[in-house]
Amino acid sequence: MKLLAVFAAVLATTSAPTHDWKLTPSGWGPVRIGMTRAQVSKVLHVELQGNFIDNEGTCQELVGVDDALLGLFFMFDDGKLKRISASEPSAVVTPRGIHVGSTDEEVRKAYGTELKVEPNHYEAPPAEYLTYWLKPEKSGVRFETDVNGKVETIHAGDSSIQLVEGCA
User: Cα separation of 36 and 143, whole Å?
Assistant: First the structure.
């Protein structure tokens, strides 16, 4: 009985992971761009699931089967993580404090003149793509804004952050 009480006390003081990591061009917490699916699953302690979404069968956009990962998508191409996308309001935030729901004005203030601004392919202005390159065309973060000037999706990773339809 004492052992059970000690075990219960340990469980009560052990906190569950919160995933309060920052989303950067290099990854999210211990999840790094370039990892394999197995490596990502291992560091997140959760299985990733999804289907191939390109004609060659090499690109997948996967999600975690954990509520803490709701709204996060992990894009793999040729077996390597290329991009992490956040598309629902959550605790996912960039090191400069931008999250889904931030305004385009907040993105501009946080990233300044380093942003590449392009019109959104599917929504009318003022919707746009605001892209910050850590290494030009190789490593960056892209913010998709809607017609209300709010960030609706954040993509972080390699040049695949520019893809507008998953793997295409």
Answer: 25
